[in-house]
Amino acid sequence: MQKPAGMQKPAENSSKSAGCTETVASRGSIAYWHYDHLSFPLPEQHRYPRGKYRLVRELLLAEGALAPRQLTPCEPATWELLALLHKPAYLETLRVGALTPQAERELGLPVTHELVLRARAAVWGTQQAALSALRGGAAANLGGGNHHGFPGRGTGYCLLNDIAVAIRYLQQELLVERIAIVDLDVHQGNANAEIFRHDPAVFTLSVHGARNWPYRKAESDLDLALPDGTGDESYLAAIEPVLLKLYEHFRPDLVFYQAGVDLLVSDRLGRLALSLQGLRRRDRLVLELSRDHHCPLVVTMGGGYARDLADTVRAHANTFRELEAVWGRIA
């Protein structure tokens, strides 16, 4: 695990934020942002699970895992905020609706005004969650984790990159020194790997299916590519020492956790074989490591495409149930 300069132990009192060097302050309940009130048109039978975001939120509220006061609907991110990462020419094509058919095919979604609005809202939600986590310990976006969004193009259902924009904002405002992206989606976080490849202040970790799309992988600071059919025990045994080393050696001031659930054995686009319980144990591992190292945490949903939508909803809901169980008395 190497990151030029960034993996060195920081000097005393060098951090601009509490990070992993102090106890995270107690500030009340965990804050969540959501944008499922913003819909967009899709062709019938399209495999993108647009409805999962609303269903996850409604399930968590109905069972009492979350209270309405914890939830804030997202507003669209400003174009100025997006420009901290995305190229002006690309943003202009989105603003005027001029994306080419080839670009739409690479994205995998029809680009409409409604989709652009929703993507901007996802960015705003993750940025706001990051600011909340720095104040209170942990926060979440009930969406986001769009790790295939490049500065000048969208791919793999990711029109804009919410995590990368949020990081660029935090860096601009000098709010943190060391940031880690813990990407446990079944698909490699290729855009974030490219964006932060030469940034010593950002460590990118991606654990993904070796044979999953994208077939041409980028180079993260640490990539752990797992074989088809990897199940619960093998997966957890592989990630635990890697995560522990990240927290102990890089000592991030803030972690973005991309908690995709497309590792499920029933997922249509994944090639791994985790159970719902295995995913829940994965979530608890990340959440407890962040808590135990006093490291502020932002959780984003990431991917999930199970044949039965209910499986995807349950898996995502488990992530936030675990977040409440581990961080609810601290955040």
The CATH homologous superfamily name of one domain equals: Histone deacetylase domain
CATH class of one domain: Alpha Beta
Strand order of the largest sheet: 2-1-3-10-9-6-7-8
Number of strands: 10
Could you say what the CATH architecture of one domain is? 3-Layer(aba) Sandwich
User: What are the segments in which pLDDT stays under 50 over at least 5 consecutive residues?
Assistant: 4-19, 21-27
**Roughly what percent helix?**
25-40%
End-to-end C-alpha gap: 30 Å
Order of helices and strands: EHEHHHHEEEHEHEEHEHEH
Structural class: alpha/beta
Main pleated-sheet profile: 8 strands, parallel
Continuous helix count: 10
CATH topology of one domain: Arginase, Chain A
Describe what you observe in this structure.
With 331 residues, this protein is α/β, with parallel strands linked by helices. The chain has a domain at 19-34 and 49-66 and 124-145 and 177-327: 3-Layer(aba) Sandwich (Arginase, Chain A). Helix content is 38%, strand content 13%. It is built from ten helices and ten strands. The strands form two sheets. An eight-stranded parallel β-sheet has the order 2-1-3-10-9-6-7-8, with helices on both faces. Strands 4-5 form a two-stranded antiparallel ribbon. Strand 1, helix 1 and strand 2 form a beta-alpha-beta unit. The two termini are 30 Å apart. The model is unreliable at 4-19 and 21-27 (pLDDT under 50).
Summarize the structure.
The chain has 331 residues and is α/β, with parallel strands linked by helices. The protein has helices at residues 52-62, 79-82, 88-96, 101-107, 113-136, 162-172, 190-195, 232-250, 276-292, 309-327, and strands spanning 31-34, 71-73, 138-141, 149-150, 153-154, 179-183, 202-209, 222-226, 254-258, 297-300.
